[in-house]
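[Solved] Which block belongs to which protein?

Original post:
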Amino acid sequence: MSEEKVNHRLILTRNLMDMMTDWGLTMEHIKSVLALDTPTRKMERFRSEEPFPNEPEVNTRIEHIVGIAEGLGAAYPQNPKMAKVWLQRPHRKFAKRAPLEVMVVDGMNGLIYVRAEIDCTFAYDATNG
């Protein structure tokens, strides 16, 4: 990977770590959502010195997390704090579970389910494409 791509990936990693922490995810949750084999005690290094692994499974999960973030931005453009509320509040669409719980517990399927609920373009593409 070129130095430019490594730098881009490191910036992406830092931003995602900050965003997921702001959403209320613990290091253990982030590890689960991204399907990382990294020991929990070493997760902090993704905040400063190391990019997420460049693996297909991790990349697909990152794509869904970014899609969820974009969907939240579109749903709550005037009040970004509502994005966190939406993620943490139980919903009937998720059997009275919070979207964050669905993402952590249900893995890839949970990410897809949450993204389909908040990102209308993803839901449309998934059903019509």
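(Second protein starts here: sequence line, then its structure tokens.)
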Amino acid sequence: MNKEKLKNEIEKNDVIFRYNNKYYSICYFGDKYSVYETDVEHSEQRFNSFEEMTENFNIEGKAFKDVIGEIILV
């Protein structure tokens, strides 16, 4: 997966992906991106742009932009 493909997919559908056996969801609301780890209460984070999300959302201490190539869409 690369950033451009992921962005296009998110803008069409809600996305669920797996990274290191944990599942995450990304929803796009037209002007905001919501990201959360499934099955973890209060883990939602909202971002104003795709770029902001990829820069500031962290998974296991890594910036999302650095692990996009390792995620698996489900």
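Accepted answer:
You had them paired correctly. Confirming on the second one: Strands lie at 15-19, 22-28, 33-37, 45-47, 58-59, 62-63, 72-73.
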